[in-house]
Amino acid sequence: MDRWSGVLKVPLHPSSRILYRVAASLCLSNNSKTLVDSYVPSANAIFFNGDCVQGTGNSVIERLSNVEEIVEILVSKFGGSVNAWVVEASTFNGPFAVYKDFIPSLNQWGDPKSYSPKGFPASTSTVSLLSNCLQAAKKAISGRQKEPCQLGLSPSRSYQPKTFILGFSKGGTVLNQLITELGFSKVESIEHSLQIKESDVQEECQMLPNSKESLLNSLAEIHYVDVGLNSAGAYITDQVVIRGISKRLAEGAGGIRFVVHGTPRQWCDKRRNWIRNEKDKFVHLLESEAEHSEGKLLVCERFYFSDQPPNLQMHFEIIENLDVS
């Protein structure tokens, strides 16, 4: 299957002057070379990137800091049937990523003061941003082809793709906000959100979630990728949130898998021992609820480069070494 890859610069809202930089790698129809003529991706893999690291002189770090490189790694990990997206924060305070549209309660360095479901900002912003990215990609492909890019719908598919969310380093804060919103979201509209009437279908609805409810209902995998902060809040430790997710599963929500990936850079940092403590509590809370989920809540923890002393290179190399099986 052919693909289109590129880096898009799009606003979250039409009136916004602030642009997000998003790398995308999207499935194309083999015959028409358009964005999905008769094909719906199996999943959308969405990767939230971390702080900006430049000038290290380390070729490995420089390469794995490149969003275009990361998006291709995602495709290699999850398979050619996925659409992959790598999102950078719209705002940086020096090197520090500030995801202020996704997490309203942040300090000036982008560290969270708290996580709250009020207004569902992360899920709403994710849906809006990716919808705008899809429209920008259509224009880019049409410009290359010198003819309109038509999005078609598959008559054999009347459901939306799954959603895989990954958060790397500071990007893990967006995962925490999404999980908080998931834990407080209702389950009543799950069936409705997955059923699409032909007369009401918009092109992007088949490719992307078109509401915060459909995004949260489509979440199938959540990957924490060597997350860490210079303050508390790297992982969710609120039992109410995790129990809320478990309650959703009991009420009919689709199964979800959490995978926690880490290196000695974060998990063995004695100056920031709260990272390991938060991770351990997060995993414990998930495992406790998983025991009563009848297999619908899965938890996996993976430790990379465990025989090496902590260093910055391994923090980026984990992206290339991710085991998402």
Mean pLDDT: 89
The total of beta strands comes to: 10
The level of helicity is: 25-40%
Q: Unreliable stretches, pLDDT < 50, 5 or more residues?
A: 150-157, 193-205
Gyration radius, rounded: 19 Å
- β-sheet strand percentage: 15-25%
* SS-derived structural category: alpha/beta
- How far apart are the termini? 22 Å
Shape summary = globular
The helix-strand sequence is EEEHHEEEHEHHHHEHEHHEH
How large is the count of helical segments?
11
Question: What is the spatial order of strands in the main beta sheet?
Answer: 1-2-4-3-7-8-9-10
Sketch the major β-sheet: 8 strands, mixed
Fold and architecture overview:
This protein has helices spanning 59-64, 67-78, 121-145, 172-183, 190-194, 203-207, 212-218, 239-250, 264-267, 274-290, 312-321; strands spanning 3-11, 19-27, 43-48, 82-87, 91-93, 96-98, 162-168, 219-225, 256-262, 297-303. Helix 3 crosses helix 7, helix 4 packs across helix 8 (239-250) and helix 8 runs parallel beside helix 10 (274-290). Mean pLDDT is 89; it is low at 150-157 and 193-205. It has 11 helices and 10 strands. The protein has an 8-stranded mixed beta sheet, sandwiched between helices. The protein has 325 residues and is an alpha/beta fold.
Short description:
The chain has 325 residues and is α/β, with parallel strands linked by helices. It has helices spanning 59-64, 67-78, 121-145, 172-183, 190-194, 203-207, 212-218, 239-250, 264-267, 274-290, 312-321; strands spanning 3-11, 19-27, 43-48, 82-87, 91-93, 96-98, 162-168, 219-225, 256-262, 297-303. 35% of the residues lie in helices and 20% in strands.
